[in-house]
């Protein structure tokens, strides 16, 4: 891997995972950390190195910065990514792409006109269980996929929102549970199921009404073009963060993810296929372990000049699905797939 200079914008909860992944790679050096809060930038620089900055635009003309990580509030992704891509930088952004589809599509278009690449952090696609499920689907070893379900039951307190002015607001977060916590599970469902034919869903605010503008609970029924059906339920109204649960029913067997282990039920027997993952240092258990692998893979593609597979157009799919659920809830009707 050729020597690459990196910068991270946003020094909140997620940036240490990015910084540690950068530190673990040969041929990559963290040269700048950016946060509008000078103290946060200074603290990040002390811990991980790099020059502390408060304005991301200082990166635009720096020839030593090749890759920029976006770990900022959702509403800042589009402006920053477009400017950085226009400057020829490679951009790796945390989910979601943006707060809405028009903003996200501007990012995709900017990437297609840039010599830089746009990557999206859907790290759960790199989890061993997720890769095993996808390989099973693609191989057809259990026959066609019939149906699947995904469940996310987590806890977010009032202080989680009141301590961060951008969370819980349509303008700055773009939604609630769906776009922040459950987006990874929805991304996996659409990745497993393929092209979506229609979506019917609803969102509610069950326990945080008066605290947030957005939803804390949602459900959806997704019909895929291959006639498979997906069900989703998610809520931030639980009192603990439990592992995401997935179940995929095939004509010849069932795969179930429970507590991050993957089981196969076939011919009356249940077999353990994958053990639980080991928790990455400093990570929350429900984030999974894929951040490091995804970041390393992105740099490998950038270094060798290959197109990163989890690019803007691929990352757009989860936001399209979320938009359909919001639209269906608002209209109380089945919403056709976004094209």
From TrEMBL:
Gene3D superfamilies in the record: Dihydrodipicolinate Reductase, domain 2, NAD(P)-binding Rossmann-like Domain
All copies of domain Gfo/Idh/MocA-like oxidoreductase N-terminal, residue ranges: 6-120
Domain of life according to the entry: Bacteria
SUPFAM superfamilies, sorted: Glyceraldehyde-3-phosphate dehydrogenase-like, C-terminal domain, NAD(P)-binding Rossmann-fold domains
Residue ranges constituting the GFO/IDH/MocA-like oxidoreductase domain according to the UniProt record: 131-255
Protein name (record): Oxidoreductase
MF GO annotations: nucleotide binding
InterPro entries reported for this sequence: Gfo/Idh/MocA-like_OxRdtase_N, Gfo/Idh/MocA_Oxidoreductase, GFO_IDH_MocA-like_dom, NAD(P)-bd_dom_sf
Pfam families, sorted: GFO_IDH_MocA (PF01408), GFO_IDH_MocA_C3 (PF22725)
